[in-house]
Amino acid sequence: MIYLLTQFVLALFATLAFSVIFRVPVKKIPACMVVGALGWITYIIAVHYMSSPIAGCFAGACTVGLLSAICARVFKEASTVFIIPGILCLVPGYKIYSTMFELLREDVMGTAQTGLETLLMAGAIAVGLLVMGIVIGLVRILVKKAQAIATRQ
Fold first, then answer.
1. pLDDT-derived band of residue 151, with 50, 70 and 90 as boundaries?
2. Which of 59-63, 138-142, 148-152 has the lowest mean pLDDT?
3. Measured between alpha carbons, how far is 81 from 129 in angstroms, rounded to an integer?
4. What is the mean pLDDT of residues 3-9?
5. What's the CA gap between 143 and 102, in Å, rounded?
6. Which residues contact 86 (CB under 8 A, 6 or more apart)?
7. Which of 94, 95, 90 is nearest to 114 (CA)?
């Protein structure tokens, strides 16, 4: 439990730094911090239970996508204001470094292995955001149809 709390606090500060770098409006920074930290915690929990950093990236990206859409509606702001700083904690920077290190050592198998995992993690982030965008769009359509049906009666 202490581990998760520590990870949450560190992810809060990392997202704060990214929010400042990307010039997020000051009033939106706390929401960005929570979005990024919850995305990271989702990643940690998913990796623990599924033993796959790729599944963890997908779950974390889904969390960031959903929370960003909610924050966008609450704060009447574009969802990218919350997505960009929130998703950066999930970017596999160390894996990219390891891939380049293996490449410089001329270890073809190591480069292929770490490179493939890095690409799959990055793809999982993109697919997670895409899936949540589609789900949120479908929910909006269903809500509008339900409202239209309710107003007819």
1. confident
2. 148-152
3. 14
4. 94
5. 50
6. 15, 32, 35, 36, 39, 64, 67, 68
7. 95
Q: How many residues does the chain have?
A: 153
Query: Considering only CA atoms, which of 65, 63, 64, 55 is closest in space to residue 123?
Result: 55
Query: Which residues are within 8 A (CB) of 52 and not within 5 positions of it... i.e. 6 or more apart?
Result: 46
Half-sphere exposure of 137 (CA within 13 A, CB side): 6
Q: Can you tell me the distance from the alpha carbon of 87 to that of 152, in angstroms, rounded to the nearest whole number?
A: 42
**Torsion angle defined by CA atoms of residues 55, 57, 59 and 60, in that order, rounded to the nearest 10 degrees:** 160
C-beta separation of 41 from 7 below 8 A: yes
Task: With beta carbons less than 8 A apart as the criterion, state whether 37 and 45 touch.
Answer: no
pLDDT at 150: 87
